[in-house]
Amino acid sequence: MLNKRVKVYISIVIGLGLSFIVYSIINVPTKKIVDIILFAFFAFLAESMPIYTTKEVTVSVAFAIDLMAILIFGPYEGALIAAIGIGFQIGKYMDGRVRHIFNFPYYKTLFNISQIALSVGIGGLIYGYTGGVPGAYIYPNHLLSAILAAMIYYLLNTSIVAVLLSLLTNKSLTYVLTKEIKWMVPNFLFLAFLGIIMSEAFVRIGYVSLILLFIPLFMIRYMFKLYMDSKQSYYDTINVLVKALDAKDKYTAGHSKNVEKIAALLCREFGFSESHTEMVKIAALLHDIGKIGVKEEVLNKPGKLSDEELSIIREHPQKGYEILKEVPALKEVSLWVKYHHEWYNGNGYPDGIKGEEIPLEAQILSLADVFDALVSDRPYRKAFSQEGAYEIIVGNEGTQFSPKIIKAFKKAFEKHREEFKHDI
């Protein structure tokens, strides 16, 4: 359910965007209708063939098509081309169903076409105001104007979406811009360059240039699909290992997933990049992988463990390290797993390191691990309440946990208390 602030913001963007679209329709010469339809078709193709950078995040080369539209035809034609392209795009839902304009929430479609029309249109106006002439050779006289138009288009598009994400996720706008959208900058630089080059080519050779654009696009998309498929297989393998461990240790089923969730919140407080956070999340999922080698009668023993059994359990960080270090992509992760039971004062295991010798990522895993263990039932005790677990964690500042990890924990707990609960 959208809150009032989100509804107001979406309504404002839709109002402004639709007004600009109507104004654009009024100002477009009839003779350009065919060009708009043809370019809109290519924009539709680009929007419908995104390149997947993660399982849920895609990058579209439609930016290059939209930029071409304003450099070749002008701001109003460009706004209409971009709006048609994004409005009629075809995609897929996570369950495999085809997504199109007729089964996509109407307010999302209106927001998408409105924000893209505003961004493209204003970028096109800036191109004209700074001396750019639509349809003319860009290099050398209009190159700076073209670069400025691309920047304005990108900044407006990014800002409008970033504000919406900030309102939806309750994250600060600064965080959204620096942590969740910053990765798009290299993509923008490449597509801006591509759009300007293709605009120059279009002025010289016409629609053949668009066909030439889609040949490398198909190749790039295919290569990215192969990469994402291999990456997904990697994550599937990790999840299989986690499920195997959950099946073996009935008392900690779901524990790794909860540690992953809490670790991600702590990473956010430290300002980790998305890729850095992703590696910590993988470490969280695999932090107890060494327990696969521990006998089930020890893991599931209902009473107190003997000294010998406790010694066996304490071998799991080292065993986890031995398992993971053989995987080249998990060398750093293996060290974080090895040290997730070390204490700030040196009383932990397996190596008894202390203070800053313990990697920050291992400290994050340690706190997340302990908190979820405290709020879940164990064979020898009932679960603590969230508040009780919080007090225990904070009470161990300077002994088990470093001051900086406690500071991050306090902030994360205050902001996301609900997400710290134990889910099975």
From TrEMBL:
| Alphabetized UniProt keyword annotations | Membrane, Transmembrane, Transmembrane helix
Q: Which PROSITE patterns match?
A: HD (PS51831), HD_GYP (PS51832)
Q: Which SUPFAM superfamilies match?
A: HD-domain/PDEase-like
Where are the bilayer-spanning segments?
Answer: 6-26, 33-53, 59-88, 109-130, 142-169, 181-199, 205-224
* A GO molecular-function annotation: hydrolase activity
Q: Which Pfam families match?
A: HD_5 (PF13487), MASE9 (PF20972)
User: InterPro entries recorded for this chain?
Assistant: HD/PDEase_dom, HD_domain, HD_GYP_dom, HDIG_dom, MASE9
The HD-GYP domain sits at 230-424
In this chain the HD domain maps to 252-374
- SMART domains hit by this protein: HDc (SM00471)
Q: What is this protein called?
A: Metal dependent phosphohydrolase
Q: Per the UniProt entry, what species is this protein from, by scientific name?
A: Thermoanaerobacter italicus (strain DSM 9252 / Ab9)
